[in-house]
Amino acid sequence: MATTKSTFRWRTPLEVAAISTIIYILLGTPGLPTWIWPDNTPVHEASPRAKVESLVYPDPGLQCPEHNYQVHIFSTTPLIIYIDNFLSPEEATHLIDLSSPNWQTSTVFNAGIESTNSSIRKSEKALLPRTPTVQCLETRALSFQGWPPNTAIERLWTQRYNVSGHYAHHYDWSSDSRTARRASTFMVYLGAECTGGGTEFPRIARPVGDGEGKWCEFIECEGGGEGVTFKPRAGSAVFWMNFDTDGRGYKETIHAGLPVTSGTKIGLNIWSWYQAGHVPG
Ligand SMILES: O=C(O)CCC(=O)C(=O)O
Ligand SMILES: [Fe+2]
Predict the structure, then answer these.
(1) The pLDDT value given to residue 6
(2) How many Å lie between the centroid of ligand 1 and the Cα of residue 156?
(3) Over the stretch 105-136, which tens digit does the pLDDT of each residue have?
(4) According to the model, what pLDDT value does residue 12 have?
(5) Where does the pLDDT of residue 212 fall: very low under 50, low under 70, confident under 90, or very high at 90 and above?
(6) Residue 55 has pLDDT above 50, yes or no
């Protein structure tokens, strides 16, 4: 009787483990936090695939109206800059109008899984369509940074906080990968008809000496809160670099959106994403 030789054979446990590991890595390590930090501080993360899809680069031929803002360097290491009049009132109104049909509950990522958790982040967010004004803001943000190479902008989101809305301490790093990371943040205030709602950096020292009084227009000088709290002022922005030149995340950039105690605060996130080898255009 003829027999057919079966090519099937059981794999050794070592082979099974190796194959499973490869499949797991190819699937993007589901179930594992994308990035684990030694001190377990929440990191504003998103799945790498979603991240790459959300990257944009403004049309270099775009004609944008001239706009002047005032730059105030708060710190050089890490670089933190307060930008007065980063947006005009008309631009802020346009962004708020664009947001109004799109507000949705803000989410956080934990172990790669997106969920709502109002004890960490209580607000609503809206993805902005890329109107010419929005693209001009993308352009302004890249131009402010000197058009860094291998750097694109993440699609812009606005964020609305009503009373008790807040965002607990976190890093914006998103990843500490040498090849892909959220290089910088602009926290822009579009609407600030509120009390509370400052952006607090508990590990940044308050100015001393001559600078002490000069900053009170932009930071809270009253009260004994931790570190430095930038005041929400409509049209202004706080800009900071999230990583040093070696690609190490600055621990000093941990920050929170403090609870709004009355009124409404509307913010805008502009994040610049470094992607090694990415040639924008
Ligand atoms: O609203 C704020 O002041 C901070 C918001 C923030 O940190 C964020 O959206 O990542
Ligand atoms: Fe943040």
Answers:
(1) 44
(2) 13
(3) 999 988 788 999 999 999 999 999 999 999 99
(4) 61
(5) confident
(6) yes
User: Is the minimum distance from the CB of 165 to ligand 1 under 6 angstroms?
Assistant: no
**Domain contains 237:** yes
With H, G, I as helix, E, B as strand and everything else as coil, classify residue 24.
helix
Residue 168 falls inside a structural domain: yes
Q: What does R_g of the chain's alpha carbons equal in angstroms? A: 22
Give bridge partners of residue 196 from the DSSP assignment.
Answer: 260
- Among the ranges given (60-64, 145-149, 197-201), the one the predictor scored with the smallest mean pLDDT: 60-64
Domain count for the chain, please give it: 1
Gap from CA of 67 to ligand 1 centroid (Å)? 24
Which residue has the least CA distance to atom 1 on ligand 1?
257
- CA neighbor of 238 nearest in space, from 86, 45, 125: 86
Ligand 1 atom with the shortest distance to the CA of 232: 3
Residue ranges making up the domain that contains 268: 44-275
Q: How far is CA 139 from each of CA 82, 184, 237, rounded to the nearest angstrom?
A: 18, 14, 15
Q: Examine the pLDDT at 281 and tell me if it is beyond 80.
A: no
Residue 26 lies in a domain: no
What is the position in ligand 1's atom list of the atom closest to the CA of 269? 9
Closest protein CA for atom 2 of ligand 1: 257
pLDDT confidence tier of residue 208, bands split at 50, 70 and 90: confident
Structure tokens at 162: 């009503």
Q: Looking at residue 82, which CATH number applies to its domain?
A: 2.60.120.620
79 within 8 A of 242, measured Cβ to Cβ: no
